[in-house]
Amino acid sequence: MQGYQADPYAAPYQAPYQEARPSRPLTIDDVVTKTGITLAVLAASAVVSYFLVVSNLALAMPLTLIGALGGLGLVLVATFGRKQDSPAIVLSYAVLEGLFLGALSFVFAHFSVSNANAGVLIGEAVMGTFGVFFGMLVVYKTGAIRVTPKFTRMVVAALFGVLALMLGNFVLAMFGVGGGAGLGLRSGGPLAIIFSLVCIGIAAFSFLIDFDAADQMVRAGAPEKAAWGIALGLTVTLVWLYIEILRLLSYLQND
């Protein structure tokens, strides 16, 4: 009986050549799974950060800065370096944003809110965030609002407008304008409440664009790893939405 004939030109102990398997096409289940993993990592990091600050208040500022700046840096790397599909970058972003949100939640709940129960405030912000998320998912699935190129341009323009206002408000506040409140967009007054509501609305409409992008990538047969990029986009929007809802609730509690 003739046995297996090894390649006489192969190097010793070299594994036989195997063709690389093509990547499996992206499915909605992939998007749900990767997004769930990303949010689970973020939540675990946020809980750790929160209790670190509870045990040592001096950690609040370092954790907030490290998380915010590190997360922003990774988003920029993912966007401009075309690494949105990298699990390492997406999960690292989740860890850093968790550190940021945990410390920030403690600060808002314990210092920005008068006589408020910290756990209740944070719980309301979390429920509000996912309420908006699932509400917009229903809106998208029912076709109540269709994502068209014009709609996308309007949301993106509104997003850049809000970011410009945030930056302008920050710069003016740094120079002591308005008694250090800048334009008053974060002062807790009526204008701050309106601004937070606008930001919540833009974040909500951004979900529709994220959902549509996921659907288009599934229909186009994108590779499975593209789910990580979609998870990153959804997580960025969820983080922003949570912060704005937390701000709004703190303003209303103070009133």
TrEMBL record:
Keywords: Membrane, Transmembrane, Transmembrane helix
Record field: transmembrane: 31-53, 59-78, 90-112, 118-139, 151-172, 192-214, 226-243
One Pfam family from the record: BaxI_1
Coiled-coil segments on the chain, per record: none
PANTHER family attached to this UniProt entry: CONSERVED TRANSMEMBRANE PROTEIN-RELATED (PTHR41282)
Protein name: Inhibitor of apoptosis-promoting Bax1 family protein
Gene source species: Mycobacterium intracellulare 1956
